[in-house]
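Inputs:
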Amino acid sequence: MRWLKSAGCWPSALLLAGRVGLRAGPRTASGSPRDAGELQGELDRFGGVSVHLARHRALHGLDAAAFRRLLQAALQQWRSEGRVAAWLHVPILQSHFIASAASLGFRFHHADSHSSTLTLWLGDGPSRLPGYATHQVGVAGAVFDDSTRKVLVVQDRNKLKNMWKFPGGLSEPGEDIGDTAVREVFEETGVKSEFRSLLSIRQQHGSPGAFGKSDMYLICRLQPCSFTINFCQQECLKCEWMDLEKLARIDNTTPITRRVARLLLYGHREGFDKIDLSMEEFPAVYTGLFYKLYHRELPESYRDTAGTD
Amino acid sequence: MRWLKSAGCWPSALLLAGRVGLRAGPRTASGSPRDAGELQGELDRFGGVSVHLARHRALHGLDAAAFRRLLQAALQQWRSEGRVAAWLHVPILQSHFIASAASLGFRFHHADSHSSTLTLWLGDGPSRLPGYATHQVGVAGAVFDDSTRKVLVVQDRNKLKNMWKFPGGLSEPGEDIGDTAVREVFEETGVKSEFRSLLSIRQQHGSPGAFGKSDMYLICRLQPCSFTINFCQQECLKCEWMDLEKLARIDNTTPITRRVARLLLYGHREGFDKIDLSMEEFPAVYTGLFYKLYHRELPESYRDTAGTD
């Protein structure tokens, strides 16, 4: 891993950075209003500079060619000052400036809803800027009723081949794994449930369902809190409580469903501690945010070895 | 989960869709070249229509106002035809059309490098279009030498507090978990290693290091293939082979590192089968792509219950 690409270290610097006034080089000639010669930028501790176009009222009346001259002068100055990267944050209604930036080498880093962010590496060698989100995360819920040995399964509507699978779907932004599983199961089947453990993780690349990005799919073990099925007609063709041994045997299911059914069968017979990853919440060291950690159950004697978690 | 948001089902439809000629309503008046009145769109099986501006040579000479009239007419027609969504794929050098689309309600879905994609929901009720990638994925490698009971740890440079941790970093686009772990360990420390198992998964939201997106961090158990440390001076302050029992005890480490050190200690004493998630590769049912599945080791007798995996 290269310096600037350290997980999580680059953009946090943007938050820490102070704002500085940056004159965009010598005042440009015709076409630019008098007061558009200043681009207010923010330095970060990695030697980059970030410009939020929304904060530049003087740019409002500027045409694309004048903006290009302004940006070109700014780039010249930033290079002379040894800046290693430039970031442009562009509100969607100011997108007419994007092609100008692109003609100077800027490319999209990402865009979401009302704005886009462009980047240009100014330092030596290849860019060391970190990329954007690379994965979508989906979660399925294996709702297993230990007393009846039945598990909740669905068949999707609109599939080329009808196969039994666990209900599930994509995480909403900012949603925890267990919460996605419980929500998706309820939305698809009407069954209420509680998170028990994480069972399995699938990683897949280039899935056509992920806009060219990668896909991480997690399967959770859930405990049912209600049993009446009221399934989503738009999404599901069938939904039922199926005997777990049957699901582990039948052909019209996906390989991942069959594998997890057998894992559940093993857990049911030998103890769920054989298959579960338990979950615990921790405070993050630097940010004070909380995160969730999933791994095999650790005996109490190992938790208390010394120090505090 | 709602119909269109089914994990992975929407965009695959775009690939399956045939292309159809769509007239953008009545020929618009002044400002638009004669042949710009046709937008070539692709229908998908969910009732959406997708337009690739790069394929419309007639748009090249068009100004933003004329494009807006063209798009407005097209939207009117698509609505009358019952289309539920519109997608615009915009090359970066045609970004001057974006503000026009935004003024008609389009918003960024995503952007990457040379192009952006905008969406507008045309159907009833709130949008049921799937979002874009929500997570970055990082991987750390816990390289443990069973014979000496030592584990490879680093201290990051440029951190406010120096703490021992496992080497690791962000996955490159399309990179498997184990490959990221092995690559990051080598880049940071110069030590070669092989993937053995997945040990733990951390999920965190709103991390400042993820441009507002979520973060999934996985820790793998790796087997060392070489032992000489040649660490990256740009990234690491220190790097050493540390006694595992010491790492499980000391204070200047992160909670996740200490927890995984204790998990490793448990595995070392009681057998790694107590802590490991094993990995296996499967072919995907619909796409023919391969994916990797991680879960607890399943005894042979359960793998062979019936049917084939």
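Helices of chain B lie at 10-16, 64-80, 98-103, 177-189, 244-247, 255-270, 300-303. Flag for discussion at group meeting.
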